[in-house]
Design goal:
The chain is an alpha/beta fold. The chain contains 7 helices and 10 strands. The longest helix has 18 residues. The protein is globular, with a radius of gyration of 18 Å.
């Protein structure tokens, strides 16, 4: 599903290159659940953003679902992202002016899905996540755990093949965090969604089927 070869990321500081990622070679099969760990500044979020097509490396190649991400046209890359990748962030990134229902519906508006079908899809995921009663509330009226649930529902609404999560439980208490991780496990096992999460928590990392450790921008062997 994912093939990263010789991925480097750096920025120039005067005449010096400051490396964020160095020589990343990684193959991820469909259906995997990967936990990426490492100290702050080890390049975890940068790696996730490159896989999620939110950032580009300074050097290297990336194939996603047999497509060479950096040789296809911008429009094709955008379609590849919209149709296959969902993102969950530590800070939720919900739109404050929109209700829970509208936040979850947003990705579908970019996919030209007809109104009736959109309504059915949102109703289905509201039901699945037990948040039907919250659909008309605004993010500010929700707890952190509820906001993250809405963020995950929004990431999954378009049925992505790949879910990327950057410290998804970072702002939650331990019980809420556990509920989110159990949900990820279910999504991975029952729906076959490939998950890559960045986490500082060894407990959360253990939910993954494989742990990748980053140190100073390199994958530790």
């Amino acid at each position: 599903m994912i093939q990263l070869e010789k991925i480097y990321k750096w920025h120039n500081n005067g005449n010096n290159r400051v490396f964020i990622l160095k020589d990343i070679n990684l193959t991820i099969e469909e259906g995997a659940f990967i936990s990426v760990m490492g100290p702050s500044g080890s390049g975890k979020s940068t790696l996730l953003n490159i896989i999620g097509m939110l950032d580009e490396p300074s050097e290297g190649s990336y194939r996603f679902l047999e497509q060479d991400v950096y040789t296809i046209k911008e429009k094709q890359r955008s379609e590849l992202y919209k149709q296959n990748i969902g993102f969950v962030f530590q800070a939720y990134h919900l739109i404050d002016e929109l209700t829970v229902y509208e936040n979850i519906e947003t990705p579908l508006l970019y996919q030209n899905i007809k109104t009736a079908e959109r309504q059915a899809m949102v109703a289905d995921i509201l039901d699945r996540f037990n948040i039907v009663g919250k659909k008309d509330l605004f993010p500010v009226q929700l707890s952190g755990g509820q906001q993250q649930l809405v963020g995950i529902a929004r990431a999954l609404i378009a049925k992505p093949k790949l879910l990327l999560a950057d410290e998804p439980t970072g702002n939650l208490n331990s019980k809420q965090g556990e509920e989110i991780m159990e949900l990820f496990k279910k999504i991975n096992e029952e729906d076959g969604v490939t998950i890559i999460q960045v986490t500082h928590s060894e407990k959360n990392a253990a939910y993954g089927k494989q742990i990748i450790n980053l140190l100073d921008g390199r994958i530790e062997k």
